[in-house]
Amino acid sequence: MRGIRGAITIEKDTKEEIVSSTKLLLEEMVKRNHVLPDDIASILITTTEDVKAAFPAQAARQIEGWQYVPLMCAREIPVPGSLPSCIRVMMLVNTDKAAAEIEHVFMRDAVKLRPDLVK
């Protein structure tokens, strides 16, 4: 089992933006890592305090075959000076890949979080 990290920022705290941005991120994470729905053990999604118009997990329910993927949403720790308007994902997947083979996905302003992992 491996963890795949992902993060994306939103411009506006609206349901549409939260869901569409989260869906974009999740789809990119599975695409880059060749993950099938049955490979996903669980997904933890966190948001900064300023993201509150919708549950980002709603996005996963729009993806074909993801109806049985366990999801949980939570709040990020509100550290002063941290990146605002951010949705973070920790996707646990069953895989034979080595840790160095996993491609973590950081989009929009979230590339600032882990520039060392951005490809």
UniProtKB/TrEMBL annotation:
PROSITE patterns listed in its UniProt record: CHORISMATE_MUT_1
Top-level taxon in the UniProt lineage: Bacteria
Coiled-coil stretches: none
Alphabetized UniProt keyword annotations: Amino-acid biosynthesis, Aromatic amino acid biosynthesis, Isomerase
Entry GO MF terms: chorismate mutase activity
Residues where prephenate binds: 5, 88
CDD domains, A to Z: AroH
EC number: 5.4.99.5
InterPro entries membership: Chorismate_mutase_AroH (IPR008243), RutC-like_sf (IPR035959)
One Pfam family recorded for the sequence: CM_1
GO annotation (BP), single: amino acid biosynthetic process
SUPFAM superfamilies in the record: YjgF-like
Catalyses which reaction(s): chorismate = prephenate
PANTHER family: CHORISMATE MUTASE, CHORISMATE MUTASE AROH
The protein, known as: chorismate mutase
